Amino acid sequence: MASAPENEVKGREETIKEGIMEKDGVLVVSGEDYIYRVCSALASPTRIRILIELLRREADIGEIADMIGQSKANASTQVRRLEEIGLVRSEYKPGVRGVRKVAKTTVREIRIVLAPPEQEEQQH
């Protein structure tokens, strides 16, 4: 049996919280509490705008603040909310003066699962 080429990218799966998992750009959410948290975070037009911009390119907090026309403090708060549910990841990179927090997202799709697979099977 032939093995996969070494340079082939394998699917990445990560459980962010018990009911939130990301795999290959898809965030899968299940469980009432986690569905509520994700939907609540997405209920903000500002956070939706940040996500759409971060799909295009990574950006630091200052750039995000400019994108949304708000202060750096508010932009940082919005990004933190998206980080909490796994939609955004941030890292610190060297800047002109000190370090800068750079945010990015790999999530292109969000799936909400209302019933876990075991419950679906029991219903049939």
Automatic annotation (TrEMBL):
GO molecular function: DNA-binding transcription factor activity
Record domain HTH arsR-type: where: 27-121
Pfam families attached to this UniProt entry: HTH_5
Protein name per the record: Transcriptional regulator, HTH-type
